[in-house]
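Hi V.,

You were right to ask for the full record rather than a summary. Here it is.
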Amino acid sequence: MSTFWRYLRVQAFVLLCGIVGPIFLVVYFAAQPDPTLKWMYWIGLFITAIDVLIALALTNAANRPPAKRKPSD
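Predicted structure:
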């Protein structure tokens, strides 16, 4: 369960840094249907997906056990 909480903390920080993605999605869905806002959907989706992947990678790297060193001859 500690991995899940670590992921949530990392995800919150990454979304804070990359808040423009979710903002674009909220604006796109809150605005009246307008074909000129289609770019906001795709850019917001891309940025948010990248944020999630970064958070997963950071959580995975933080949970990896330290590398074992070979004894030197």
